[in-house]
Design a protein that fits this description.
158 residues; alpha+beta; 7-stranded antiparallel sheet; 3 helices; 15% helix
Length: 158
């Protein structure tokens, strides 16, 4: 499959169902369906969570880091034409690592690798970097429920 370049925020929403205020990717710079994706999120002080997390030392909450990494990971398989726009759901989140605070003004650059994908079940990892230094990482298992339902005995094809 061809590599896709510079998928902007409007087009990202054609591939996945995340929307404001829970869309945490500004651009997918590169996506090779069935293999990898790269993207970034610019964190500015205007983000809705910074005043509460924390007023005297604002930083990106862990759940937002996890969701940002996941949204880049989704592009490793939602860029496959037959899966474009499908709903997804977490199956497993493993080995989440937070190596440094991400603060207003930081650009989180993320790289996702799809290790396996079959029957609507994706497994892989994503790592985020700030200024070239690892900031966070995660291992993920994600399902496409509509696809997986086809493989339930008696509910579809087997």
């Amino acid at each position: 499959m061809d590599v896709l370049y510079n998928i902007n925020v409007h087009d990202i929403q054609k591939y996945q169902q995340n929307r404001y205020p829970l869309l945490f990717v500004d651009m997918i710079t590169e996506a090779c369906p069935k293999k990898y994706a790269k993207g970034f999120k610019n964190f500015t002080y205007n983000e809705w969570y910074f005043p509460a997390h924390f007023e005297d030392e604002p930083n990106v909450p862990g759940f937002i880091q996890v969701e940002s990494l996941t949204q880049v990971f989704l592009m490793t398989f939602l860029t496959i034409p037959e899966y474009k726009g499908k709903k997804t759901g977490f199956v497993s989140i493993k080995n989440a690592r937070f190596k440094r605070p991400i603060i207003p003004g930081d650009k989180l650059e993320m790289e996702a690798i799809l290790e396996s994908f079959a029957r609507g079940f994706a497994k892989g990892k994503c790592t985020g970097f700030v200024d070239g230094n690892e900031a966070c990482s995660i291992q993920l298992e994600i399902a496409i429920p509509d696809v997986m339902k086809q493989y339930i005995p008696g509910k579809g094809r087997v």
